Here is the input.
Amino acid sequence: MFGPKKTKYRKQQRLRGGEKGLATKGFRPAFGTYALKAMDGAEITARQIEAARRAMTRYIKRGGKIWIRIFPHKPITQRAAEIPMGSGKGALSHYVAVIKKGTVLFEMDGVDTSIAKEAMRLAGEKLPVKCKFININEN
Here is the structure.
């Protein structure tokens, strides 16, 4: 699973709303011919990224090359059920990647267009955001 190897602080404040607005970085395909772009902002968990990666890799039968353009840096904590108020912040639960509308999530190269499109569609089904397939050769 994805997550930082080492962080300066184990827990962070949540600061919701970071996914609002348009992406100003990472909104253009940089590596591959095909890309999967987010059509709205959200927090994507490390498990969802891994599930999408597996779906793509299995569909292209380990051919071609896949780039993952997002990384879950943000730690999310979870308190145990039925704990009274007070007693501090909860234990680390998982990591998320905060993405804005227009962020390129995955890129792919070395496969046919129809295979790439279907692989990206399968990956998009695993994610909590609407996604769009991009082919840089069409422009």
